[in-house]
Specification:
Order of helices and strands: HEEEEHEEEHHHHHEHHEEHEEHHEEE
Radius of gyration: 53 Å
Number of helices: 12
Distance between the termini: 76 Å
Largest sheet: 6 strands, mixed
Number of domains: 3
Strand order of the largest sheet: 13-14-12-11-9-15
CATH architecture of the largest domain: 2-Layer Sandwich
Helix content: 40-55%
Structural class: alpha+beta
CATH topology of the largest domain: Heat Shock Protein 90
CATH superfamily of the largest domain: Histidine kinase-like ATPase, C-terminal domain
CATH class of the largest domain: Alpha Beta
Shape: rod-shaped
Number of strands: 15
Length: about 500
């Protein structure tokens, strides 16, 4: 099932709201029209009743009664009325008193009961039709002359008119509002379609640009229209930034796979070549022993490479912190002692300077790998007779500073130090045994607990690595005391 487009939903929503608004405004307009028409109708109704009252005159009989000459009446067709002499002592009085002087042919007694004594206009139903009527009480003076005011004869007028004209006027207004509303909806729908097509063009361009992304070209290029739209500029910038990081991650992954494959292929090739060389001809037991030792050394190097790759993946995916903690100062001393043989072989001096304990949110394995990689990397690039110093400072955060007196790092190599398998001088890979993963592992460990690592170096002056780690949660750092130094030669 095809889902409606955003443009269609916006148009439908706006038209629905407009319909609701038109319905509300139309209802209010019809209510106002009904009220005004009814008010005008009531004025007309009272005017006709007053006109009928004006036709009541002296009957010129002995009883001094009043009468109406039907031939003199000029009333509208369809009106129903009755004129009654309201004097209660007149003969022929009905249930309400008085005699009927005259009435229209369509008048019915039920109309009198419906009107009651309504001095204000009232709506009622008679013969399936709506009427609006009123009761008008008046007084006619008869036999009046210059010497006498005459005799006052009270008269009651019952007058009702069909409400059809009011209904017709309201219906005409309703038809007009309906036609005008439909025309307005058509115009609004067409205008919305045109405006939304233009207004959503940057969004469509943005979606088309996103659809052009492929695994080979994951970089997103925001179209100018999207960048020029304030609401879409933020989204376009976020997409560009995200795809840029994604492209960088793909690139690094490809480089990682390429370098890992190259490293493993080199090791496998060496082992294979050694075995082929051993099997090319008959050899002595000593030659076989030396060949196997070479194969074992290469296998050990390949095993170490795989272990470092797995270690890097584990540290990048497994967050540390929480209840995991260790003493960085104690771990640093233990690592320095374990590197005593390496220090003696390379002729460098490794010293650890730490005062009080330094609790950090890392496991012993991660903390040991961090310190070992930093000390090993520094000692491998420090000539004989040089010094490698690890100093730990405690405060609001734990700081590990590793310094060496080695050859230093070229400025153009500093931005690449934490990239996987990156080595500034690849010719030294065999002599130092490094695979370019040590600092990558250190960065992964530091990032896992929210710390930072920074390297500064100058050629011929050595290198300085500063690692800042947060203190373990819930730990209270002891008071500073004199630093103790562990020296390994």
């Amino acid at each position: 099932m095809r889902r409606p487009s955003l443009r269609s939903r916006l148009i439908a929503t706006v038209l629905a709201l407009e319909c609701a608004l038109l319905a509300a405004m139309g209802g209010a307009a019809l209510g106002y029209t009904w009220r005004e028409q009814l008010h005008a109708f009531d004025l007309m109704l009272r005017g006709r009743a007053d006109s009928l009252l004006g036709q009541v005159h002296d009957a010129e009989d002995i009883a001094d009664s009043v009468t109406i000459y039907p031939a003199a009446l000029d009333l509208h067709k369809g009106d129903v009325w009755m004129v009654r002499d309201a004097a209660p002592d007149r003969p022929g009085k009905s249930g309400t008193g008085g005699r009927t002087i005259a009435q229209s042919s369509a008048w019915k007694a039920a109309a009198e009961s419906d009107l009651g004594n309504a001095r204000k206009p009232r709506t009622f139903r008679m013969d399936g039709q709506h009427y609006r009527g009123l009761v008008l009480h008046g007084v006619r003076q008869i036999d009046a002359d210059d010497t006498s005011p005459g005799i006052a004869r009270p008269v009651t007028i019952f007058y009702a008119v069909p409400l059809r004209p009011v209904h017709q006027a309201v219906m005409r207004a309703a038809r007009f509002l309906l036609l005008a509303g439909m025309l307005l909806l058509l115009i609004t729908g067409a205008a919305l379609r045109l405006l939304l097509r233009r207004g959503l063009a940057p969004l469509e361009q943005l979606s088309l640009a996103a659809g052009e992304m492929t695994p080979r070209h994951p970089r997103f290029r925001a179209p100018p229209g999207a960048l020029a739209t304030r609401e879409l500029a933020v989204l376009a910038g976020a997409l560009e930034s995200a795809t840029q990081r994604l492209e960088e991650a793909f690139r690094r992954q490809q480089e990682f796979v390429h370098d890992a494959a190259h490293e493993l292929k080199t090791a496998v090739t060496i082992v294979k070549s050694s075995l082929q060389l051993l099997g090319s001809r008959q050899r002595t037991a000593r030659e076989y022993s030396r060949g196997l030792e070479t194969c074992q050394a290469d296998c050990a190097r390949m095993e170490e490479l795989v272990q470092r790759m797995l270690q890097l993946a584990r540290f990048e995916q497994e967050p540390w912190g929480g209840n995991v903690r260790c003493d960085l100062a104690e771990v640093a001393r233990d690592v320095a002692v374990q590197m005593e043989t390496l220090a003696r072989i390379r002729g460098v001096t490794i010293s650890v300077v730490a005062g009080s304990s330094a609790p950090v949110p890392l496991g012993d394995d991660a903390c040991g790998s961090l310190v070992a990689n930093l000390l090993l990397n520094a000692s491998q690039h420090t000539p004989a007779g040089g010094y490698v110093t690890a100093e730990i400072f405690t405060g609001r955060e734990i700081v590990l500073e590793v310094r060496d007196t080695g050859s230093g790092i070229a400025p153009e190599d500093l931005p690449h130090l934490f990239e996987r398998f990156w080595r500034g001088d690849r010719s030294r890979a065999r002599t130092t045994g490094g695979a370019g993963l040590g600092l990558s592992i250190c960065k992964a460990i530091v990032d896992s607990c929210g710390g930072t690592i920074r390297v500064t170096s100058h050629l011929g002056e050595g290198t300085r690595v500063v690692v800042k780690l947060p203190a373990a949660e819930g730990s209270s750092l002891p008071e500073p005391r004199a630093a103790s130094e562990t020296v390994v030669r």
